[in-house]
């Protein structure tokens, strides 16, 4: 017998909401808590919990990616080796996944590029130009028309060439 509340439709209802609707509310709550959380470890866990419930949630992927990349600023010095940095690898993966889901021109990705530039500037300030170059490169790959990212990428490449006494390589 049909009955009220979706009985007989295959959707279990509780308090007027389907399981899917409850999951969406829980994911939103987890994201809200993560945004307000000050402790980096707890913030990380809240984003991961949201993604366990909804792997395709673009906000969770985008925000976890940026959160992981911000953690590069907390790494002990000297930590300027992009190749061995797990946070960098996962952060890039999360941002690329969110970008693919959101599509070209989405303002969330444009805003993420601004945040990436800020992270890159901070890394430069900590004398971590190789990591900064990776961050700027990610921003340029996400949005090739993001002028600030392109300019920063150019500047940090020039700085690295001067630093390594390879200005001829930069000019070529």
Cα gyration radius (Å): 21 Å
In spatial order, strands of the major sheet run: 1-2
| Beta-strand residue fraction | under 5%
Order of helices and strands: EEHHHHHHHH
Could you give the distance between the termini?
Answer: 77 Å
Form type: elongated
Detail the topology: elements first, then pairings.
Layout: E1 13-14, E2 17-18, H1 19-36, H2 40-53, H3 58-70, H4 86-102, H5 107-125, H6 129-142, H7 147-163, H8 167-171
Antiparallel strand pairs: 1-2
Can you walk me through this structure?
It is a single chain. This protein is mostly helical. It has a domain at 56-171: Serine Threonine Protein Phosphatase 5, Tetratricopeptide repeat, CATH 1.25.40. The chain contains 8 helices and 2 strands. The protein has helices spanning 19-36, 40-53, 58-70, 86-102, 107-125, 129-142, 147-163, 167-171, and strands at residues 13-14, 17-18. Strands 1-2 form a two-stranded antiparallel sheet. A hairpin with a 2-residue loop joins strand 1 and strand 2. Helix 2 (40-53) packs antiparallel against helix 3 (58-70). It starts with 12 loop residues before the first strand and ends with a helix.
Feature tags:
two-stranded antiparallel ribbon, ER membrane protein complex subunit 2, disordered N terminus, elongated, Serine Threonine Protein Phosphatase 5, Tetratricopeptide repeat, 172 residues, 2% strand, 8 helices
Summarize the structure.
With 172 residues, the chain is an all-alpha fold.
